[in-house]
Amino acid sequence: MSQQENVQDYELHGQGSHDRYREDILGRANVADSPELLAYYKELAKYNTGALWTIANKIEPWQPKSTSVPVLWRYRDLRKHVLKSAELVTPEKAGRRVVYLENPGKSGEGPAVGLLYSGLQIMQPGEAASAHAHSSSALRFIMEGRGAYTIVDGQKMLLEANDFVLTPNGTWHEHGVEPDGTPCIWQDGLDMPLVNMLEAGFYKVHPDLHQAVTEPVDSSVALWGAPALRPQNIGWDKPYSPLFRYQWKPTYEALKHYASISAGSPFDDILMHYTNPLTGGHVMPTMGASMQLLRPGFVGKAHRHTGSFIYQVAKGTGYSVIDGQRFDWQERDIFCVPSWKFHEHVNTSQTEDACLFCFSDLPVMLALQLYYEEALTENNGHQRVGE
């Protein structure tokens, strides 16, 4: 819009347009091209420089403008392809046998949303991937199967459906399935796009390919898994949670206890964050996780906030409206909410709970004081679908 058009808009719409007029005229670059300016830009380019006003509106927007779009990945569509990967490649040859989730707004870049990566990994009975470590922090959410385990810095953990597991940055970790187990599938979540954006990524393979189990099985659960209790004289000085496995059963019980005494949030109903038992803070510096319970018939209102969020349906059926689009989901489906997009959740069952696991870059938003949130005030707090 030209300066003249802005002035006309201001004159037509009166004082109510004054703020937008000031932004458009006084706060943004509004320089028309001319032969002299084009020649100037060409000259600057010779020295690997440029005029800031030519890109200012792009690199410093008035509000967040995510290049990611809302996506729903239906498990019933993906499962057969994940299983097929186990027939085509081995963990040794693939490195990590994973079907990754790609956001159409970031095609070819790798993220599922924002600077978060997600993928579905499968392991067959008797298989074991080699131990490795990397700069990226990672997490797992177990989707199906029996007999899966992970080993993190010598701690072996047995995994069950809907368990949430940490593999923090720099830790040696490996995964496998016991010979008497069944095919196991889980969601991997990593901050790898963020680490790569910062150009700080390292990757290494364990010199022995596999690490020794040096502690009792599920030792971190035994030490740190009791609610509101901490062990005496056990030191921990790392920036991530000492509890590596967060089990589904006590998580669901905690949500139901909370629901029994709370009216809940109008946006998220009953939401609880997985925490570091020592600090009460997020489980890792760059990624946080939560589980929320939507009671039968819950209809959430819309809000938006900064940060990128990936949800996996742990229980139940329902739908979410994200940026004006409705996405119907069921158990094990995955969907994403890009930064600063209005979203609302609904449990369509009148008798059963719905539970949504979520991981996000919320710790980064909070640490850098970039977290903002607002509710939708028009249309009684609900989006108009398809508009």
Description:
The chain is α+β, with helices and mostly antiparallel strands and 387 residues long. It folds into two domains: 9-62, no CATH class; 71-381, Jelly Rolls (Sandwich), CATH 2.60.120. The chain is 22% helix and 27% strand. Strand 6 and strand 7 (155-158) form a beta hairpin. The model is unreliable at 1-25 (pLDDT under 50).
Task: List the defining traits of the structure above.
387 residues, alpha+beta, Jelly Rolls, 2 domains, 6-stranded antiparallel beta sheet, 10 helices, 22 strands, 27% strand, globular, disordered N terminus
Determine the number of helices (DSSP H or I, runs of at least 4 residues).
10
The number of E-state strands comes to: 22
Distance between the termini: 24 Å
The main β sheet shows up as: 6 strands, antiparallel
Evaluate the radius of gyration: 24 Å
CATH class of the largest domain: Mainly Beta
